[in-house]
Amino acid sequence: MEEQKPKMKLAVYWAAACGGCCVSVLDVHEKLFDVVAAADIVFWPIALDIKYKDVEAMPDGHIDVTLFNGAVRNSENEHMAKLLRKKTKVLVAYGSCAHMGGIPGLANFSNKEAIFKRVYEESESTINIEKIRPLPQYEAPEGKLELPVFYNDVRPLDRVVDVDYYLPGCPPQTERLVEVFMAIVTGAQLPPKGSVVGAGNMAQCEECVRKKTENKLIRKFYRPWEIYDDGVTCFMEQGVICMGPATRSGCGYRCIVGNAPCRGCYGPLSDVSDPGTKMMSAISSIIDSQEPKEIEQIIEGVVDPAGTFYRFSLPSSMIRRKLL
Amino acid sequence: MLQKYIQQMGIESARLKLEWISASEGKQFAELVNSYTETISELGPCKIKETMEVLT
Questions:
Q1: Collapsing DSSP states into helix, strand and coil, what is residue B1?
Q2: How far is residue A152's CA from residue A154's CA, in Å, rounded to a whole number?
Q3: Which of A84, A90, A231, B32 is deepest in the core (most CB within 10 A)?
Q4: pTM of the entire structure?
């Protein structure tokens, strides 16, 4: 009998994530058969009942590829990031949260105390007269109970462990994942370590089919609900902020196809380290006024610059959190 | 825009100043730098580094 080539070992893990990344992996649909033909999935909490201790028992470097999605927000995330780094040959930061901090990273506008106060005391749906907060350790009659420690900062994966590749997106486009996976399986030449894979290296605008003219002058910013989008003209030209100019292509500009402006989940292009400042400079240069007072008024229309321009990238930006 | 952003990030707005001075206006430039240096010394060191360390 012909000897079978040893199958690749694949793991998928979620840290501080919403679960959408794992669903994007499930979205390979029938291609999943190609995946499992080439790889054994050895760890995937959303789909398989494999415990942390099973991973701990694996020899170092046992897993070939781990798709790590989610940011690092608590001690459990950090423990798993370090554990999977040790057990994995190729660690991929999968999705915006692992790549740049993502939506959970917006918590860096706050800190642990403020978040706990809001969630466990002040939120409209909470009645907590004794002001009980979760404890990392609790002595119950049945034994000691433990919860992960909640950190002040949300961090992208590469601030905690060494990362081999980044696969951006919120969530990553499933087709890109399949392409990357097949490249690994077929033994294609892999890009240098630290590369962003499964994405293009030009701005969204280069691919976007909306009608663009040279007339990029803004006298008023609109939030998407304040304006009737004509469905054809470039969002920026209509005065709606679209992160396209500062965002890497690769998703097939699917938000714009759905008539919503780009929000920047694919992150900056490779020669840009801070997407927000790039976007701010792009936007500031198209404000159509020379009068300081008027400019100020136009800028008032950008209600939340930090949250808009760093929606997915705050923890990996230059000023990675609010100073409190 | 940058002003609005740095305030959201908790950095004092006085730390960012934008002025236009032509190359021929040496005096204005010197005065601005002197007065701004004073402003900054009054503000003292930015707490960015310690905050980052404490909160990590």
A1: coil
A2: 7
A3: A84
A4: 0.88
Angle at A317 (CA atoms; ends A311, A321), nearest 5 degrees: 80
Which structure tokens are listed for A174?
């499933």
Cα–Cα–Cα angle for A94, A99, A104, rounded to 5 degrees: 100
In chain A (324 residues long), the average pLDDT of successive 10-residue segments reads 73 94 89 85 92 95 95 95 96 95 94 94 94 92 93 94 94 88 81 89 91 86 92 92 92 92 93 88 88 90 93 92 85
Element (H, E) at A249: none
Nearest CA in chain A to B49: A323
Whether residues A153 and B9 touch (CB distance < 8 A) is answered with no
CA A231 vs CA A199, A245, B14: distances in Å: 25, 18, 42
ipTM above 0.90, yes or no: no
Cis-peptide, bond into residue A171, ω within 30° of zero: yes
Q: Which residue of A has its CA nearest to B2?
A: A280
Asked if A33 contacts A111 with a C-beta cutoff of 8 angstroms, the reply is no
**Which residue type does A191 have?**
P
Q: How close A305 gets to chain B, by Cα (Å)?
A: 6
Rg of chain A taking only CA atoms, in angstroms: 22
Nearest Cβ partner for A324 among B4, B8, B51: B51
Chain A's closest residue to B47, CA to CA, is: A323
Q: Which of A299, A322, A323 sits opposite B4 (nearest CB)?
A: A299
